[in-house]
Design a protein that fits this description.
Elements: H1 4-42, H2 72-84, E1 89-90, H3 91-100, H4 105-117, E2 121-123, E3 127-130, H5 136-141, H6 145-148
Antiparallel strand pairs: 1-3, 2-3
Helix pairs in contact: 2-4, 3-4
Keywords: Coiled coil
Region (Disordered): 132-151
Coiled coil: 10-37
């Protein structure tokens, strides 16, 4: 039998490890975000007035998600879709944006589902569009969160 004092110490150590692992995950996200930001600044078409990946805006109003989007993959996608404008991006192009950001293709697929479910992007079966950049006929066909939930 392990003495109670040692059990408490083990629990404290496990909590400390869990805390530091979570902190490391956040730091890893910050590092990836900053590396992507560096790449964007180095691009020939860089516009300082464009929203940065670090602060990618989440739409306000009825199409806004119930809670802020924390996924780095989703934020990368939304920033790329905003930049693409009415031309939108293919699913493969979105995957590349995410993998170029240091994340996996699986993260890209999950993020696509998340942004579509939260109505932050529109998918017409072939291309993806930001809400602001989508062609007007697509925006008109997309229900808001309130409409789709029956509110």
């Amino acid at each position: 039998m392990i003495p109670e004092g040692r059990i408490r110490r083990l629990e404290d150590l496990k909590r400390s490890v869990a805390f530091l692992e979570e902190k490391r995950r956040h730091l890893d996200d910050d590092i990836v975000r900053l590396k992507v930001e560096i790449e964007l600044v180095l691009r020939d078409d860089y516009r300082p007035s464009a929203p940065s990946v670090a602060t990618a805006a989440i739409p306000e109003g009825p199409a806004a998600p119930a809670r802020p989007l924390r996924s780095l993959a989703a934020r990368l996608m939304l920033a790329a879709l905003e930049e693409a404008g009415p031309a939108g991006l293919s699913g493969g192009e979105l995957n590349k944006v995410v993998t170029d950001g240091g994340l996996t293709k699986d993260a890209a697929e999950k993020a696509k589902a998340r942004v579509k479910a939260n109505r932050l992007a529109i998918h017409n079966g072939k291309r993806w569009f930001s809400l602001a950049g989508a062609p007007p006929q697509l925006r008109a066909q997309t229900p808001t969160n309130a409409e789709s939930s029956g509110s």
